[in-house]
């Protein structure tokens, strides 16, 4: 977009208006920009014709995570199902791609824009230092960030669906504290993700507020392998935790298996909480306490917000309800003595 603006002698915003059929530039300027864009390899948009029923339209979704971790991740499978429900009703296609990292994801966006393969994108796994919002603004691609950007950050043409990670972590820590747990370890996901940062920060703040010196977070790649490795390491410490909070169901199930393999009882020796509820949480013994949220609705809302942008609506921030903590057999009063303030188990 910068190259087109420089060669056409206009601003980048003027290029965005012209190439996306938005008001804000004269017809003479629009024609000049389009001629330059064509010379640079940009292809005319089919979005407007598709949305008016004269053709087909597509939205994009790129996931920058190891492919092997996605196949067993119930969250993404349900999220995509919810997205597809809405897109199917609108006769919109979904172009899906898995890449290794965010730079590769950005390269995909640039290629899709140059080829005009998509009319908008759904952005997952927002990062602490995320280059994608600025890139999408530069390209003039409407998008919806699923999960929410850091702090109160907003961008033109970019809606957000925020999850209440702060409230959810506070609820989990509060319940474990009520049960008598004082040494709590959060086995987290990737430390570059904003929702991981929010959960880690909230645990730290709750620990400070409640005087829990044995509470901390350990980051992983979300896989069962790293979840199991970290579980073994923390449980073999001289002062092991009495409660473990896992950032997904796959790591929680792997952690439960490791705990049993070490001869420890769940929940008598160690309580286990999964951030995501799924069938997997009810296929292990004992059944796992988990945070439950309507992930299908999460996907539907994201797709609805994107179609609203494609229809010319304004960007906005929507919020998902606080997840519900479903208590099952994997959490209880710790049998071992615990340190720190508050009541001790007997």
Key features of this structure:
434 Repressor (Amino-terminal Domain); Rossmann fold; single chain; 13 helices; six-stranded mixed β-sheet; 43% helix; alpha/beta; 346 residues; six-stranded parallel β-sheet; 3 domains
Plain-language structure description:
This protein is an alpha/beta fold and 346 residues long. The protein has a six-stranded parallel sheet with strand order 2-1-3-4-5-11. The protein has a six-stranded mixed sheet with strand order 7-6-8-9-10-12, with helices on both faces. Strand 3 (120-124), helix 8 and strand 4 (143-147) form a beta-alpha-beta unit. It has helices at 2-8, 12-19, 27-39, 47-51, 67-70, 74-89, 102-115, 132-139, 165-179, 194-210, 224-235, 249-261, 295-310, and strands at residues 57-64, 92-99, 120-124, 143-147, 158-162, 184-188, 216-219, 243-246, 271-274, 289-292, 317-319, 324-326. The longest helix has 17 residues, at 194-210. Helix 2 packs across helix 3 (27-39) and helix 7 packs parallel to helix 8 (132-139). It has 13 helices and twelve strands. The protein has three domains: 1-44, lambda repressor-like DNA-binding domains (434 Repressor (Amino-terminal Domain), Orthogonal Bundle); 55-162 and 297-323, 3-Layer(aba) Sandwich (Rossmann fold), CATH 3.40.50.2300; 165-288, Rossmann fold, CATH 3.40.50.2300.
